[in-house]
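Quick start: read one record
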Amino acid sequence: MITKVYDKVKQFLIENIRFFTILIVLGVVLTYEFPYYIDAPGGLLDVSERIEIEGGYQSEGSFNLAYVSELKATIPTLLIAYFSPSWDILKEEDMLYDNETMKELIFRDKILLEEAISNATIVGYEKAGKKVDINSEKIYISYIDEEAITTLAVGDQILEVEGKTIKSKDDLSEVINTLKAGDEITIKVLADEKEIFRTATIQNIEGKNIVGVLLSQVAQLDTDPTIKFHFTNSESGPSGGLMTALSIYNMLIEDDLTKGHTIVGTGTIDLDGTVGSIGGVKYKLKGAVKKKAEIFFVPAGENYEEAVELKEKNNYKIEIVSISHIDEAIEYLKNL
């Protein structure tokens, strides 16, 4: 019996060998990834779906992040991008800083999301008059300039510099500013869960002492009421800071700032509430329009100018609001 089944299967494969060969070749060709990426308009993410606050208030409307869809370049996606004016083909190196690998970019975006969440929590709680205390802070290396003279690596968590415990970016600046250009410093870091020592040489650029690295500071917070986040592994970057802070603030106060509206926005958030510029405005705005959003918060300056130009060019039916500080967004919503 088994022999007969085997013979039939073998005969079937022999008779259809050409079909299966073509199928395999097509599968390989159509899924082969080229060294390019495709940026396209994304959708909206209701931030409240990623935030859980004990006893937090619900809203009738929603605060939404607008995001960019980033796709790997395959033959199908390249063909769509070639004929679609709203899809762009980017070389891998166009997405990276100088002297940066794709692995380092992924880490940088992940840690910038953590920093944005940390900043947004502090700003949101402070604006709502709720308790938020910084329990501890972790300082990470998120980028190293190609001119830096150092053995530091992206992902290192800085623990000590010249024997002094580092608890913030300011602590590191204080140590560096006591030295002079050409001095080599010893830095204790946590790398791959091991404490090791690195070195860096001080450089002076335009009168400022630097070691040529970009730092990200993530605070470990104690809050009342308690808060938890549920962002997914595919979500990263700092551009959701403003909307995360607004959503947290709205969940902590009785009055509903959304007033039933679908509010979309983008922009980084600093600890003092300042809103910073971001990339991919055209993709985010188109995604907001596609989802019929009513209001689009965008960082003041070039981001706002680009958004207004796109709105006028494409006759988008959406209110674009320039924001340079979270207080401006809150005031706008109160006056809706």
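The mean pLDDT is 88.
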